Structure formats: C-alpha cells, structure tokens
Amino acid sequence: MALIRLWLIVFALQVALYLLLRFSIRLRQVERLERRWDDRHPGQGDRAARRAFVARGMASFGRSLRVRLAAVVFVLPTLAILGIVVLVNWQ
Prior knowledge:
mainly alpha
C-alpha cells in the first residue's frame, strides 16, 4: 500500500513539474519568436503576419528536442526511485 501511495504522490508531482516546464519553455519560445520578428521587421504593425510567424515557429518547436526533454521528468525520477528500492531491498 505504501508503494502505491508513493507512486501516486510522485506521479502527481511529475505531472505538475512537467506542466510547469512545458508552459515555461513554450512561453519563452513564443517570446523569442516575437523578438526575432521584431528584429527582422522593425516598425511594422502587421499583427496577422506576426501571429502566423509565431504559429509556424511553435508548430516546429512542438516537435523539437526541448519539449521531448521535458518528458524525461517522468522517466528519470521513476528510474531513480526504482533503483533506490532495489538497492535498499538487496540482500
């Protein structure tokens, strides 16, 4: 029962951390794309083109390595806990 409780708590923490990381990384990428647009098109107020540029950039970003690395939030802690359980119970 304690193992199930531990798993549920760790899983809830992993989901929360994953969502926070994903939101933070995506927010930083949107800001980076908007700055890139502003640098390339100074003084232009074409909001539709800017939104399209950001949308295209975010579509390619969704498949990038950074977002996949956030999935490691689920794998590494689980493997660490499994390793600790095995080492503690090894006889």
